[in-house]
Design goal:
This protein is α+β, with helices and mostly antiparallel strands and 310 residues long. It is 15% helix and 35% strand. The strands form 2 sheets. The chain has a 12-stranded antiparallel β-sheet.
């Protein structure tokens, strides 16, 4: 984030005119065509949420997503309310498709989310009883930063609609990683006690990211270090969406709340977070909870989880 502030930026109009272009003719599929799971950097076809991405203006796009009822993060039930992180994961996949097809100077070294915020209206959120929910997404690109002829950072805002009703939105800032991953090492915590999946709002044990360590400390210790959605490819550093989910799970555990009470989540990464061993601290503030993620003595990330009032 500090590197982002130090970048030299032109006006938004100049960047939109020169920084975004339709490069789809020279790259794989045409505009609006379905991106492949390999293009999106996914581990398998089953992880794909984005069906299409079409340009609607200089900085506006429209996308179609399909959210499977049996997605890895969703509960196993007859009527499924989709996990809120499906909005964030859809936005991340849309950013990958955008960089491949429409952003000038994009390459295989993709930008990564450094801050994410989402909000959902539980009254309008789709409940799926069939195979999948069809979701329309309005995408806006702003705050582009250019470095050496290539886009180095930008902001993506996605609004989500189901059956004509807007039910949520997700904002995501993407940039280059601020520091090399070699500076971070995982901290070992022997004798960890893992909470039950239901206590942290997880659908199954592999989705649990937290455990109790010495003196009751809550630490990030993924049950599945190669989780197909949260930790694909067993990364050494925790991606922003996994940090976001760790904050959600920690808040539900701390507040004794149900997953359906979550109306908003936000996270900002200030330093690399190791995939195992970071400490999570939660403090309640009215209807919201703040969480800090510490790597050693350093605060690596912070965020909030907003809960519906009972």
């Amino acid at each position: 984030m500090r590197d982002m502030m130090a970048m030299e930026a032109s006006s938004v109009t100049e960047l939109l005119d020169s920084g975004i272009e339709d490069v789809s003719a020279g790259r794989r599929a045409g505009p609006g065509g379905p991106p492949t799971w390999r293009e999106l950097g996914l581990q398998s076809m089953s992880a794909t949420l984005v069906e299409s991405l079409s340009r609607r203006g200089s900085r506006f796009f429209e996308a179609l997503c399909q959210w499977p009822r049996w997605h890895a993060l969703n509960e196993r039930a007859l009527a499924v309310t989709h996990h809120p992180l499906l909005m964030a994961e859809s936005a991340r996949q849309l950013a990958a498709a955008l960089e491949l097809r429409h952003l000038k100077g994009a390459d295989d070294n993709r930008l990564q989310p450094v801050s994410v915020s989402l909000g959902v209206d539980p009254r309008a959120q789709p409940v799926e009883r069939g195979a999948a929910s069809d979701v329309l997404v309005h995408v806006t690109v702003s705050d582009l930063v250019e470095r050496m002829g290539a886009v180095a950072a930008y902001r993506l805002t996605a609004e989500f609609f189901h059956a004509g009703t807007r039910f949520g939105a997700c904002g995501m800032t993407l940039a280059r990683p601020s520091r090399p991953p070699l500076e971070v090492a995982s901290t070992p915590y022997p004798g960890l006690l893992r909470p039950a999946p239901a206590a942290v709002g997880a659908s199954a044990e592999p989705d649990v990211l937290l455990a109790r360590g010495a003196q009751g400390r809550l630490v990030i210790a993924p049950c599945d270090p190669g989780h197909p959605v949260l930790l694909p490819g067993r990364p050494a550093l925790l991606p922003a969406l996994a940090v976001m989910e760790a904050g959600r799970q920690a808040t539900l555990l701390y507040r004794g709340a149900l997953p359906s009470a979550v109306a908003g989540i936000a996270v900002r990464l200030d330093a690399p977070v190791p995939s195992r061993g970071a400490v999570v601290e939660v403090a309640a503030e009215g209807g919201a909870s703040r969480f800090l993620v510490k790597a050693g003595e350093q605060i690596a990330a912070m965020g909030t989880v907003t809960l519906l009032r009972p």
